[in-house]
Design goal:
single chain, 234 residues, alpha+beta, six-stranded mixed beta sheet, five-stranded antiparallel beta sheet, 4 helices, disordered N terminus
Length: 234
């Protein structure tokens, strides 16, 4: 499904007392289509390129027995999107937001991410695992007033702890409305992993983007720009 269809006609703020719809929840932190709708309305053909940028750090969490129990994400959004996402949020101090003030926004948005599989995909010993993760836990938002950016922190527990020689984690938006990229410094950690476990990261070189005849043609393009974490434990 093209996420743009969720946004057409959706109100920016729900009416007082009205139920908050999933489209509104995603809009507040992953407002992918706010920019995309304007782009698509201006042209009849669409070029596949991102509208929101996320710089990420990822931890793989290990249990004492050497199994992987979860994936912990820290996603920092670009300043333009962060400004949009925080518009209208009451704050005690102007230009700053506390964790408590942002917690309702964090909650509704991690719930909304489920529809998109949290943009996180697991391969165990070479086999793609569908529905590998439980609902997020330990989630919150922080705001950096100097950089004026939001960071979403959350942990995805595996439904079943992973004991495998090879584990591959991919992070990407299939339609490439969001461009995920590893942080320059310490983008990945193996927390509590056995000493012999090693990892590599991969981000395809994305200097050029493919052009498509319509937005529907963008489905799946994001896989070409997936961030990959490959873990090997002998």
């Amino acid at each position: 499904m093209n996420p743009a269809r969720l946004w057409l006609g959706a109100p920016l703020v729900p009416a007082r007392g009205a139920a908050v719809r999933p489209s509104y929840l995603i809009r507040r932190l992953l407002g992918l289509i706010v920019f995309a709708c304007a782009h698509l309305s201006a042209v009849t053909t669409a070029q596949a390129h991102p509208h929101v940028w996320v710089t990420m750090k990822t931890d793989l969490i290990y249990a004492p027995d050497g199994s992987v129990t979860g994936v912990r994400h820290d996603w920092t959004f670009d300043d333009m999107f962060s400004a949009f996402a925080t518009t209208g949020i009451p704050a005690k101090t102007k230009g700053q937001f506390t964790r408590e003030e942002l917690q309702p926004l964090a909650r509704v948005n991690v719930e909304s991410l489920k529809e998109y599989a949290y943009f996180t995909y697991a391969w165990i010993d070479g086999k793609r695992q569908k529905d590998a993760f439980s609902d997020p836990v330990d989630y919150w938002l922080t705001y950096d007033p100097k950089a004026t950016v939001l960071t979403l922190h959350f942990t995805l527990p595996f439904k079943k702890a992973v004991t495998a020689k090879k584990l591959l984690i991919e992070i990407y938006d299939p339609e490439f409305f969001i461009d995920f990229g590893f942080a320059e410094s310490n983008p990945v950690r193996l927390v509590g992993a056995p000493a012999q476990c090693t990892f590599t990261t991969q981000k395809p070189f994305d200097e050029s983007f493919q052009t498509f005849l319509s937005s529907e043609s963008n489905v799946g393009i994001g896989m070409s720009f997936a961030n990959r974490i490959s873990v090997k434990c002998p």
